[in-house]
Amino acid sequence: MAETAPRKTFETLRDEALGWIIRLREGDATDWQAFEQWMAGDPRAADIYWDLAADDADVADALLQDRPIVPTAAQPARTAKAMWLGGGVLALAASLLLLLFLPGPTVTYSVETAPGQTRSIPLSDGSEILLNGGSKIQLDRENPRRARLADGEGRFTIAHDETRPFIVEVGEASLTDLGTVFSVTRQGGELRVAVAEGAVRYSRGGISRDLAAGDTLRIGRDGRLVAGEIEPADVAAWADGRLAYGSVDVAAVAADLSRATGLDVSADPAVARRPFSGGFALGKRDAETVRRAASLMGLRIRAKGKGWILEAPASGLE
């Protein structure tokens, strides 16, 4: 005589139900079939699952109506066939309700990097995004030709398609690929764009500006546009282990150093808006990197907590 499987404990069923809540948020047909088999395998499974699902934050708003209360009074004995049919109906009902109420796979998703870390993001259309440290970007699973840079910096190498332009959204502005390799930086309310190959169109409201290879554009907190130039090979130079600038302020260099090294680097307000043109190797991406950068800018560094501040040298040493 075949041995029957031991009856699962309440704790085991509860752990399994929690697993199903998480798994079915992005479940496929195989997952749903396995879930129905799990529901039908134990008459307690449905009640345990729904008690947990009702508490889950993702479905609490959707479950506006109470579930029918299952009578707990003594019931007439049911045949094995009736029990099997009852379990199957309950499992099917639960599956249909889950399809209606549980959120499916989200269309957009985010990719983040920690300071000092970079990450390559290949896209299904053949394009690639290289995300600098301390950055966050939002992408669309259904539309690989659109991205939103929430913070930080990215280099975009785009497979050009005239019928489906690639668009990067940054705040209220958008950047449209015209056959391009370009970088975008969003930091402290400012936006910087630099083009290495091809062209990019900047748009915001009724303002539009086309940028060619070697062009830069800085949009300040006040919305003012400042055009500039850069050697195309210096665009997103951080990807090659260096930083290079046509003309930026010290505050921007400090933010770039933070992203590239993982150190907390800031600029003293007295020098934050001082312009800088030039470049330097990132080397070991440590405090010595910050010190060398400060020296090239005619500044010094001062330790503050676990970070560094770029400031003017003491009087008479400048």
UniProtKB/TrEMBL annotation:
The chain crosses the membrane at residues 82-102. InterPro entries: FecR, Ferrdict_sens_TM. Gene3D superfamilies: 2.60.120.1440. The keyword Transmembrane helix applies. One of its GO terms (molecular function) is sigma factor antagonist activity. Residues 111-201 form the FecR protein domain. It comes from the Bacteria. Keywords: Membrane, Transmembrane, Transmembrane helix. Pfam families: FecR (PF04773). This is FecR protein domain-containing protein. It comes from Sphingopyxis fribergensis. The lineage of its organism: Bacteria, Pseudomonadati, Pseudomonadota, Alphaproteobacteria, Sphingomonadales.
